[in-house]
Each structure stands twice: as structure tokens, then as C-alpha cells.
Amino acid sequence: MVNADSPDICPECQGRLRALEMELICEDCGLVAEIDPIDRGPEWRSFHDDDTNRKRTGAPLTRSRHDRGLSTEIGSASRLRITGRKRRQLARMRREHNRARFDSKADRNRMHGFMEIRRIVSQLSLPVNTREQACTLFESAQSESLLQGRSLEGFAAAAVYATCRTRSNARTVEEIVAVAKANAAELKAAYAALNRDLGLPTGPIDPTEYLPRYASELDLETDVERRADRYATRLSEANRVGGRNPSGVAAGCLYTATRSVPTAESITQAAAATVADVSPATVRSTVDELRKLAADSDSEFELDADLG
User: Fold this and answer.
1) Which of 65, 156, 220, 248 could bridge 215 with an S-S bond, Cβ 3.0-4.6 Å?
2) d(CA 281, CA 232)
3) Are 278 and 251 in contact (CB under 8 A)?
4) Mind giving me the DSSP string for 82-104?
5) How far apart (Å, rounded) are the C-alpha atoms in residues 289 and 292?
């Protein structure tokens, strides 16, 4: 430490001390005479073209919570060594605090819907921005009074499904129902209300949106996925996917592609149908359409597959 009688003099070489960031060092011998353990600088890096306000307190705001993440919470006292009277008092305080968090029943319903959306998104391993957009869509539906007389769980599942549709991150109704608390009828009714009253920018699902995920689950190589993408694109251009299950079309294209690529390991129609959650007959119908498209004399499409 620095001598109290001469705070600016090095105790080793009698040189001059200079403050540098968190340290007090000697300009002559380099001795670190004192260290300030507290870093008083900013916790972020500032750039000349960054106009954002760096002042903040606490966690960032999020749309996936009914209060934007601004509420406090009284935690459990299970790890504290307190008397039974004090423990009961904390339990009453926590109960009253939870009741006072919501100004109205609408806030409580919003919290319930947001929690269901967070759970579904987590179960399906979807991106965080999908969760935020789904919560915003649920809040818009509530502000338009679409939730009255309908299932909250159904609207939460429908919000996730609609968000996946608008972001070209296709998920089937069966996949969402498998992890949601709502059934297929509740999801479809809620999605119809969202699509009708909010005017969602959703169109027909492109079968190519399913190809990367199905190819990964079937452990297929990249060449197979590219060939299947070409098959699905040609079917769409020829207007032969209308009225068909896009998930089944993707599975049929992948099955055909495994028979077309010489180095690829073939899969069965049952395996492709299981991944797409369709019947083998749906996969065979897509194969038949590919065969008809290849046999069309007006088409330049060639099907390099031995389909028997």
C-alpha cells in the first residue's frame, strides 16, 4: 500500500505514482501500489454509430410476460431457517402479492395464455422471436375480444401455429397439439378466428419448408434434400400440390429423392410417412404425381428414380 505520508511517491523507488484504470502504478519501476477492486466503468462497449440508450435497471423488457417483465416476486422460504409463524406470514404475503399482481381478469387470462405459449415454444424448440410474436398476436386477439367464450389454451396454440405459418417455419397442427393443452378442434377454431378477424398474412404452406427438418430426422444427406427440393418445386410449378397435405408432399419427395441419388441410402415409405405424421398412402400419391409429371411429354422434368 502507499505510504500515508507521501501518497504520490512509490514506496520502492520513490518514483511518481499514476492512476491507470483500477490500479495505482509507479511510472519508474512499474510497481502496482494499490488496486481498486470495484470496476466503475460501463459494463458495455459503446460505438460511435450506436444511438441506443444504455441506461437500464434489471432484466430487459419482454412481450412474453403480461407485465413486460416488470413485476416482483416473493420467493419461497424453504431454504431459510425461520420459525413456523414467520413461515406462515411469508406464505400469506406471497399469496396476497400474487393476487395483487393482476388489475383485472383480462390480465390474469393474458398471463395464463403467455405461460402456455412459452411452454409450447420451449417444447417445440422454436426461436425466441417466435415466442415474442406469438404473445403479441395473442394480445391482439384479446384486445379484439376474440377470446370470449373460447379456450385460452386453444388461442395460445393457435398463436404459435399462426406465427410459424407467417415466419415460414412450418409446424403441423398435430405437432403443436401433441405438446399443447388444447385439442385439434380448439386450435382450428381459434386459428380460424385469428385468420378471419385479424387478417393474418398466411398463404398455402410450401412443402419445401418441411424438407430440412424431415431430412434431418431421417438422417439423409444434403444431396437428397436438394433433389427433394427440386421435386417439390417442380410439383408446385406444375400446380400439382393443390389440395394435398404439404407435409405428405415433402415426405413423398424425400422418399423419391433417396431412390434417385445413387449414393443415398433408401428409406421406406412407412419411415417417411411416420416422420411426416401421414399415412403411407399419402406418400404413394405424391410418388404417383411425380411419375405422371415425368411421363408428361410437355414437361422437361426427368425423374431419375427406380420406383418399380
Assistant:
1) 220
2) 18
3) yes
4) --HHHHHHHHHHHHHHHHHT-SS
5) 5
Residue 253: what pLDDT?
92
Q: Read out DSSP for 163-202?
A: HHHHTT----HHHHHHHSSS-HHHHHHHHHHHHHHS----
**Terminus-to-terminus CA distance in the chain, angstroms?**
88
Any residues with CB less than 8 A from the CB of 71 and at least 6 apart, and which? 65, 101
Residue type, 92: R
Q: Are 243 and 281 in contact (CB under 8 A)?
A: no
* CATH class of residue range 207-295: mainly alpha
Contact 200, 162 (CB under 8 A): yes
Burial of 29 (0-12, 13-18, 19+ CB in 10 A): exposed
Q: Do domains 61-203 and 207-295 have the same CATH topology?
A: yes
What sign for the dihedral angle of Cα 48, 50, 55, 60? negative
- Provide the b/e sequence for 238-254 (b: ≥16 CB within 10 Å): eebbeebbbbbbbbbbb
- Quick one: average pLDDT of 140-144? 89
Query: What backbone torsions phi and psi does residue 174 show, to the nearest 5 degrees?
Result: -65, -35
Q: In sequence order, what are the beta bridge partners of 19?
A: 24
pLDDT beyond 70 at 2: no
Domain residue extents for the chain: 1-36, 61-203, 207-295
Q: What is the pLDDT of residues 269-293, one digit of tens each?
A: 899 999 988 899 999 999 888 888 8
CB 77 within 8 A of CB 87: yes
Architecture in CATH of 61-203:
Orthogonal Bundle (1.10)
Q: How far apart are CA 9 and CA 6, in angstroms?
A: 5
Question: What separation in angstroms does the CA of 25 have from each of 20, 40, 103?
Answer: 7, 18, 57
Closest to 131 (Cα-Cα) out of 208, 139, 108, 102? 139
Please count the other Cβ atoms lying within 10 Å of the Cβ belonging to residue 289: 20
